[in-house]
Design a protein that fits this description.
The complex is a heterohexamer, with two copies of chain A (232 residues), one copy of chain B (244 residues), one copy of chain C (66 residues) and two copies of chain D (221 residues). Chain A is of the alpha/beta class. Chain A has helices at 6-11, 13-17, 67-74, 96-101, 118-128, 137-142, 158-171, 188-203, and strands spanning 27-38, 41-52, 56-60, 82-87, 90-91, 103-106, 176-180, 207-211, 223-227. Chain A has a single domain, classed as Rossmann fold (3-Layer(aba) Sandwich). In chain A, helix 5 (118-128) packs parallel to helix 7 (158-171). Chain B is globular and about 60 Å long. The chains are: A alpha/beta (232), B mainly alpha (244), C mainly alpha (66), D mainly alpha (221). Chains D and E meet through helix 2, helix 3 and helix 8 of D and helix 2, helix 3 and helix 8 of E. One adenosine-5'-triphosphate binds next to helix 3 of chain F. Chain C: It is found in: Cell inner membrane.
C-alpha cells in the first residue's frame, strides 16, 4: 500500500501525534428518532442511528429516498423536524462548535471555485480548516492531477474536479467525514484508491458516513448499511 | 463573389500576411503621425480666433473621424462573420473593438481639453459630444459582452451580433441626439462652425487622419495575429511555431 | 518653425496645459494600446509553449503510471 | 408556421404562477420613482421639470431588469436547446415571450401612470402625453430588453451586463419620449415625437425577433 | 478566530481574474448618470441642482446590482454550504466578501467622482462634500447590498428582488448624503449629516456581518 | 409485449398511416470527418459515422470524452469545426428544416419547466411539434405517473421528471431520435420499459443515437457502438 500512497504517509504523521478526540469503538454520533419533511412529504420518521469511531455507515436507497436530506441533517446544515442529534452523548446544539470542528462534510456540490486553480482551491480549504499552508503538488500528483495544478478548475473534467474536491480529505484532521456520493464522476481506479484511503482513516479511528449508488468493494469489519425506503 | 476571398480567409494565411504587413504599416503610421503632428504643432500659424489651442485639432479630428470609421469596419466584419460564418472576421471584431474604444476616448479627452479654453467648461451635453460618449459605451458593451462567456466562440458570435445591432442604431442615436440638443440649446454655446481652414493648416490635418487610419490597420494586424493564435492553438502549425 | 523660441513653443500662447494634456494623454493611450497588444501576443506564445510542455509532462507521467 | 396560441398560453400560465415576475418590476419602478423626491428635494416645480426624464429612466431600468430572467429558466432546463434543435417553433416561442414580457411589465407601467402623475406632480397635458409615450415606448423597451436577455442568456453575469449593452440603445427612445412630455407640458404639439417613436417601434418589431432567435441559437451552441 | 488574510486574498484573486465583476458596475454607473442629462435636459443649472440626488441614486443602483452576484458562484459550487457546516470560518468569509465588494465597487465610485463632477457640472464645494459622502456612504451601501445578496442567494429571482428588499433601507442614506451635498453647494456646514452617516455606518458594521452569516445559514438549509 | 405497453398501441397507429420518410436500411444520417474542439482541446478528429433507418448507434466513452458534444453536432445545435453532415445524402445545411422536422433531440437537460405540471409540459411539446392536442393522462399512467399529472414538476423526483421528459418520444413522429443519457435517474424497471419502446421504434424503421454509461440489455441486430477515446 505504501507504494500506491506515498503521499498519505507524508501527510498522515500529524494524526499520530494528535489522535482523534474519541477513541476507537466509542460512540461518536447518535441520532434519536429523526424525522424529515420536505414539501409536505414525510421522507423518513422515527429514524435512529449510531456511529462509533472506526465505523463506516453507508446510507442506501432509491433516488429521492431522502439520503442527502439525512446527511445534511447529520452535518448540522438543516434542523430535523423531530428528534435530536447527540455528539459524544451531548446534544449537538450544545457542542456545536466542537462538532463542526471535528467534521468534514462534502456534498453533492464540489466546493471548488471554477475560476481558481487546484492549488488555490486547496490553499483556501486549508485556511478555512485553520491548517498551515503547505505544498500540495505531491498530493495532487497522487490524485492523478500532475501537470494540471495551475489551470483554472473549469477547464478540468468533471472527474478531475471531483478529485480536487476530495483532496481535502487527505489533509483533513476531522474525525467524522460525511460524504454525499463521493464516487460520482470518478473512474474505477479512482474509486478503488479512495476506498483504500477510507480504510486507512477508519483504522486510525476515524468514522465515515456516506451515500453511494455503487456497491462498495472494500472489506472492513465496521461497515454498516442503513437502507432508506422510498415513500411517496 | 467571395470565392476570391476564400484563400485569404484561411487563418494561417491571414496570420502570415498580417505578420508581413505589420512592420510596414506601423512604420508608416508612426512616420505620418509624427510628420503631421510636428508640422501642425510647430510649423503652422495660429488660428486668428482660437490662438494656439486650435492645434489640438491634429489629434481631435483624426481620432473623432476614425472612431466612427473603426466602428463601421467592425460592423462590416461582424456582418461577414454572421452571414458567411468566416472565423477570421469574427475574431477581427474582437480585435478591432479596443482600438475603436481608444480612438473614441482620445476624441473625447482632446475635445474636453479643447472645450475648457474655448467654451469655459470641460463638458457640455452637446449633440456631438453626447453621441461620441454613447459610441464609447457601445464599444465598451461589445468588449464586455465578448468577455462574458466561458466559451470564446459564443462570446465572439454574440459580440458580432451586438455590433451589427449597434450599427443599425448608430444613425438613429446620432439623429435623435442632434435633434434633442437643438431643441434645448439656444445659440448659447459655440456651434461647430466649420472653420474655413487655410490649406497650410489642412495638410498636416489630412496627414494625421491618414496616420490614424494606417495605425488602426497596424494595430489590427497585431491583435488579429494574437486572436488567430488563441483560437487556433490546437492546430499543428501553431504548435510547431510555439514549439521552437 | 512658427515659434520664436522653445519656451514659446511649450507655452502654446497660454494654452500649453490643454495642448500638452491632449497630446500627452493621446500618445500615452496609443502607446499603451500598442504595447499591450504586442505584450498579449508574446504572453500568449509563452503560455502556449508552457502548455505544450505541460502536456508532454502529463503524457510522460501517464506512461510511467501504466 | 407554428401558431402562437399555445406558446402564449404557456407564458401567461407561468406568469400567473410566478407572480413575483411581474409584481417585482412594478414595485421596483415605484420605489425608484419615490427615491427622486427624497434625493432631489420635494419642491413641486423642480419635480415637475424633471418628471419626464425620471419616469422614463425608472421605466427603462425596471423593464430591463425584469427582462433579465426571461429566458433563464427555459435555458437552464433545456427548453431553448430543444426548440433550437427543432427550428420551426423558435420564432413563435420568441414572439410569445415578447408579448408576455410586454403584458407583464410594460402594460402595468401604463396602468400605473395616474399614480405616478400624482407622485411627481405632473399636470394633465403631460399626463396624457405620458400615457401615449408609455403606450408606444414600452413595447420598444420590451423588444430591446428581450434582445439583451437573449444575447446574455448563457453569460451568467447578471443584470448589469444586460444593462450595459442595452442602455445605449435606449437613448433615442428616452430622448423622444421625454421631449414629447416636455412639449406637452408647454402646450406645444408633439405629434412629431410620437411619429418617430412609432417608426422606431415598427422598425424594431421587424428586426428584433430575428435577432433574438439568432442570439438564442448562438447561445445554445 | 480564523484570520481574514487568506479569505481576502482569494476574493482579490477572483476579482483580478473576473474583471467584469468590477468594471461593469462602474460602467453602469456612468451610463445611468449620462441618462439623466438626456432625459431631463442639458441645462447646466438644472443638472447642478439635481446632481446630488442623481449621483446617489446611480451609485445605489450600481452597488446593488453588483452585489447580486456576490455569493452566487460560491453558493452554486457548494463552498457556502461547506463553510456553514464547519461554522468557524464563515464570519471571516463574509468579512472578506464585504471588504472585496467595497474595494471593487464602492472605491471605484469614489475614484470616479472627479469625472462625475465634470459631467454634471458640480461646483468645488459640493464636489468635496460628494467625495466625503461617497467615502462614508459606499461602505454602508456595500453592507446593505451584501445583506440583500445573502438573503436572496437561493431565491434565483435576479437583481430585482434584491433591489426591492434593500432599496427601502437605503432611503436614510440617500436623504442624508444628498442633504450634505446640497448644504455644501449653498456653503452651509454639513458636519451634522456626515456625523449621522458615520453613526449609521458604524451601527451597520456591527450588525450586518452577523446578519449576513445567519442569512447564509438559513439559505443553505 | 402488448400487455406491457397497452398505451403504445393506441398511440402508434398514426405511424402505420404515415410511414417514415426513409425506408428501412437506407442511409439516414452520415457524418464525414467531423472534428470538435472545445476550449482548445481536440475532443475528436476525422470522425465519420453512418446511421441507417432501423439502426441504433450507441456512443460510448469516459466522462469528458466528447459524447455530448458529438450528439449536439449531430442534432445541428453546434457546427463542427471541420467536416460535414449529410442527411439523406444532402448537406444538412441545405435541408435544415426537413432534418429538424424529422429529428427529436433530448439532451442532458430535461426540457421540463419546473413550474408547469406534467400535462402542461406535454401540451407545450405537442404544440411545438405541431401535433394536435390530445389527452395525455393514459400516456402518463403508462409511464408510472398516474396521480402526479397535475402537480408542478419541481415536486417530482429526478427520475419522475425524466419520465415526463421522455414521454415526448411516445407521441413523436420523428424518424431519428438523438438521446443524451436517457437512462439517467431512471430505475431498473423504467430502463427496461424504455428499451422495449426503443425496439419498437427501430422495427418500425426509426433510428436512434444515444449515449449511456449503463450497458444496454436489449437484443437487436442493428445495434452498433461507437467508442470515443478520452484525450487530454
Ligand atoms: C468632448 C468634447 C468633444 C467631442 C466628443 C467632440 C467630438 C467630435 C466629433 C465626433 C467630430 C467628428 C465629426 C464628423 O466627422 O462628422 C468632431 C469634429 C470636430 N470638432 Fe469636436 N468634439 C469635442 C470638442 C470640440 C471642441 C471644444 C472644439 C473646438 C472649439 C471642436 C472642434 C471640432 C472641429 C473643428 C471638428 C472638425 C469639424 C468637421 O470635420 O466638420 N470639438 N468633434
Ligand atoms: N431543497 C429542497 N426543497 C424541497 N424539497 C426537496 C429539496 N431537496 C430535496 N427535496 C425533496 O426531498 C426528496 C428527497 O431528496 P434527497 O435529495 O434527500 O434524495 P436522495 O435520496 O439524496 O436522492 P438522490 O439519490 O437523487 O441523491 C426528493 O424527492 C425531493 O422531492
Ligand atoms: N460548453 C462547453 N464549453 C466549453 N467546453 C466544454 C463545454 N462543454 C463541454 N466542454 C468540454 O468538452 C469536453 C467533453 O465534454 P462532453 O460533455 O462532450 O463530454 P461527455 O463525453 O458527454 O461526458 P459525460 O459522460 O460527462 O456526459 C469536456 O471535457 C469539457 O471540458
Ligand atoms: Mg442525494
Ligand atoms: Mg455528456
Amino acid at each position: 500500500m505504501r507504494a500506491i500512497f506515498p503521499i498519505v504517509d507524508s501527510q498522515r504523521p500529524v494524526i499520530k501525534h494528535q489522535p482523534f478526540s474519541v477513541p476507537v469503538g466509542q460512540l461518536l454520533l447518535q441520532a434519536q428518532s429523526l424525522s424529515c419533511i420536505r414539501q409536505d412529504r414525510v421522507l423518513f420518521e422515527q429514524l435512529s442511528l449510531q456511529v462509533h469511531a472506526g465505523e463506516l455507515l453507508q446510507v442506501a436507497g432509491k433516488n429521492g429516498a431522502g439520503k442527502s436530506s439525512l446527511l445534511r441533517l447529520l452535518a448540522g446544515l438543516a434542523t430535523p423536524d423531530e428528534g435530536q442529534l447527540l455528539y459524544c452523548r451531548q446534544p449537538v446544539a450544545d457542542v456545536a462548535t466542537d462538532y463542526a470542528a471535528n467534521l468534514c462534510y462534502i456534498g453533492h456540490h464540489s466546493g471548488i471555485h471554477e475560476q481558481l486553480t487546484a492549488l488555490e482551491n486547496l490553499a483556501f480549504w486549508r485556511a478555512a480548516a485553520e491548517l498551515p499552508q503547505a505544498d500540495d503538488l505531491a498530493l495532487l500528483a497522487t490524485l492523478g492531477l500532475a501537470g494540471l495544478e495551475d489551470i483554472p478548475c473549469r477547464m478540468l473534467s468533471a472527474g478531475q474536479q471531483r478529485r480536487v474536491s476530495l483532496a481535502r480529505l487527505w489533509f483533513s484532521r476531522s474525525q467524522l467525514w460525511i460524504l454525499d456520493e463521493p464516487f460520482t464522476a470518478l473512474d474505477q481506479s479512482a474509486i478503488a484508491m479512495l476506498q483504500q484511503f477510507f480504510l486507512q482513516h477508519l483504522t486510525c479511528g476515524g468514522a465515515i458516513i456516506l451515500t453511494t449508488h455503487q456497491p462498495l468493494s472494500m472489506v472492513y469489519d465496521g461497515l454498516n448499511t442503513l437502507e432508506l425506503a422510498y415513500r411517496w | 463573389m467571395f470565392k476570391w476571398l476564400h484563400p485569404y480567409a484561411k487563418p494561417e494565411t491571414v496570420y502570415h500576411l498580417c505578420g508581413r504587413l505589420m512592420p510596414w504599416l506601423m512604420g508608416a503610421a508612426l512616420l505620418l503621425l509624427l510628420l503631421g503632428n510636428i508640422w501642425g504643432l510647430a510649423f503652422t500659424p495660429p488660428d486668428y480666433q482660437q490662438g494656439d489651442s486650435y492645434r489640438i485639432i491634429h489629434l481631435h479630428v483624426p481620432a473623432a473621424i476614425m472612431s466612427m470609421g473603426t466602428y463601421s469596419a467592425m460592423a462590416i466584419a461582424a456582418f461577414i462573420a454572421l452571414v458567411w460564418q468566416v472565423k477570421v472576421a469574427q475574431w477581427s471584431v474582437l480585435a478591432i473593438a479596443p482600438i475603436g474604444a481608444v480612438y473614441t476616448a482620445i476624441a473625447l479627452i482632446t475635445g474636453m481639453a479643447w472645450g475648457k479654453p474655448m467654451w469655459g467648461t470641460w463638458w457640455v451635453w452637446d449633440a456631438r459630444l453626447t453621441s461620441e460618449l454613447i459610441l464609447l459605451f457601445l464599444y465598451l458593451g461589445v468588449i464586455a459582452l465578448s468577455g462574458a462567456f466561458s466559451d470564446r466562440q459564443t462570446g465572439a458570435k454574440v459580440a458580432s451580433l451586438l455590433a451589427v445591432v449597434g450599427v443599425i442604431n448608430l444613425p438613429i442615436i446620432h439623429f435623435s441626439v442632434e435633434w434633442w440638443n437643438t431643441l434645448h440649446q439656444g445659440a448659447s454655446i459655440t456651434k461647430f462652425a466649420k472653420p474655413s481652414i487655410d490649406p497650410s493648416m489642412l495638410w498636416p490635418l489630412l496627414i494625421s487622419i491618414l496616420a490614424f487610419k494606417i495605425l488602426m490597420l497596424a494595430l489590427l494586424c497585431v491583435r488579429l495575429r494574437t486572436a488567430i493564435l488563441v483560437n487556433e492553438q490546437h492546430r499543428p502549425w501553431v504548435k510547431a511555431m510555439a514549439g521552437d | 518653425m512658427y515659434f520664436q523660441s522653445w519656451a514659446e513653443f511649450w507655452a502654446m500662447g497660454g494654452y500649453g496645459l490643454f495642448v500638452w494634456l491632449s497630446f500627452g494623454s493621446s500618445y500615452v493611450m496609443l502607446a499603451a494600446l500598442a504595447w499591450y497588444s504586442q505584450y498579449q501576443h508574446k504572453q500568449f506564445k509563452r503560455q502556449l509553449s508552457a502548455k505544450l510542455a505541460r502536456e508532454k509532462r502529463l503524457q510522460q507521467y501517464q506512461e510511467q503510471a501504466h | 408556421m407554428v401558431t402562437l396560441g399555445p406558446f402564449l398560453k404557456r407564458e401567461l400560465r407561468l406568469l400567473a404562477r410566478q407572480k413575483a415576475d411581474w409584481l417585482n418590476p412594478v414595485l421596483f419602478f415605484l420605489i425608484v420613482l419615490s427615491l427622486f423626491p427624497l434625493g432631489v428635494g420635494p419642491e413641486p416645480n423642480l419635480l415637475r421639470i424633471i418628471a419626464p426624464g425620471v419616469i422614463w429612466i425608472a421605466a427603462l431600468l425596471s423593464v430591463l431588469l425584469a427582462a433579465e430572467r426571461l429566458f433563464k429558466d427555459d435555458y437552464r432546463n433545456g427548453v431553448v436547446e430543444q426548440l433550437v434543435a427543432s427550428r420551426q417553433p423558435l420564432l413563435a416561442f420568441v414572439l410569445a415571450k415578447l408579448l408576455a414580457n410586454w403584458l407583464s411589465t410594460g402594460l402595468p407601467l401604463v396602468l400605473l401612470s395616474p399614480l405616478v402623475a400624482l407622485l411627481l406632480n405632473v399636470d394633465m397635458a403631460s399626463f396624457i402625453a405620458m400615457v401615449l409615450t408609455l403606450l408606444l415606448g414600452t413595447p420598444l423597451l420590451s423588444l430591446l430588453s428581450v434582445l439583451g436577455a437573449a444575447l446574455t442568456v448563457s453569460a451568467d453575469k447578471g443584470g448589469i451586463l444586460l444593462a450595459l449593452l442595452i442602455l445605449p440603445l435606449y437613448i433615442p427612445l428616452l430622448i423622444f419620449a421625454s421631449a414629447a412630455m416636455e412639449a406637452a407640458s408647454m402646450a406645444l404639439p408633439y405629434h412629431g415625437q410620437l411619429a418617430v417613436m412609432l417608426a422606431m417601434l415598427l422598425f424594431a418589431l421587424a428586426l428584433v425577433p430575428v435577432a433574438v432567435t439568432s442570439a438564442l441559437k448562438i447561445n445554445v451552441s
